[in-house]
Amino acid sequence: MKKNLIENALNFIFPPACGFCGEITDSYLCEYCSSYLKTMKLNKISIYEDKFFSTHLWLFEYKDEVREKIIEYKFNSKSYLYRTFAQIILADEFVCNYIQEFDVIIPVPIHKKRCKSRGYNQSELIAKEIAKKLKNIELRTDLIEKVKNIKPQSTLTKEQRIENVNDAYNLIKSNKDNLENKKLLLLDDVYTTGSTVNECARLLTNLNCKQIGVITLSKD
Fold it and tell me: What does the pLDDT average to over 109-128?
């Protein structure tokens, strides 16, 4: 009850707005921007046999307005944009059906220093909203940790990205319980070479899970 009162008060002071154009809207994505984004949305599923994950669903190409908003979200302290990105996902039946094929959703972690300087993990905020709205999918943020504060992947070549993530992540062994034969879904914002999610998936294979999939907002 107290939480609802606080949320209502904040919504009164700071009315929810579309993350793309700023128009006041309860859904954090106005009808015009929603319609426009649908013309850009691809919703492609890639299937892999040479990676530690088997499927990858991505919604957009990493360009134009989508790229600009993801950069703003990650690097310009606009954490509120998670609601807009989550709404884009949750309003899409095809995407929701893909997510609900899995038992657990796992946001790709960022290093503690980067989280402290940024103030949030952009993937975790979106994953939390998805787990809150969709039934039968569990959020886990206690399985993988990032132990090396590596160079941003966006600044590196394909070969450098693969080398960059070596030993950058660690499986939190004390939290391996109850995941045997479950389907795990990794969530990240941008997929370029796939080296980050592949390294995370490699660690998750130690949990004897049934399947590992990936979902990202965009693909570069």
Answer: 95
> What span, in angstroms and rounded, lies between the C-alpha atoms of 152 and 175?
27
Q: Please choose, from the candidates 31, 139, 127, 43, the residue with its C-alpha nearest in 3D space to the C-alpha of residue 92.
A: 43
In Å, how far are 19, 30, 34, 192 from 91, measured between CA atoms? 15, 12, 9, 25
> Model confidence at 156, in pLDDT bands (50, 70, 90)?
low
CA–CA distance, 44 with 102 (Å, rounded to integer): 17
107 phi-psi bin (left φ>0, alpha ψ -120 to 50, beta other): beta
Angle, in degrees to the nearest 10, between helices 64-75 and 81-90: 130
Instruction: Tell me what pLDDT residue 161 has.
Output: 65
The dihedral region occupied by 187, where left means phi > 0, alpha psi between -120 and 50, and beta the remainder, is beta
| Amino acid at the residue 14 | F
Under 8 Å between Cβ of 104 and 182: yes
Instruction: Indicate the Cα dihedral angle 105, 71, 40, 153, nearest 10°.
Output: -70
Distance separating alpha carbons of residues 195 and 15, to the nearest angstrom: 39
What kind and span of H or E run contains 46?
strand 44-47
- The pLDDT value given to residue 47: 97
Residue identified by tokens 């990493």 is 62
Residues in the chain, total: 220
Place of tokens 């907002």: 217
Cβ-based neighbour number of residue 206 at 10 Å: 11
pLDDT at 177 over 90: no
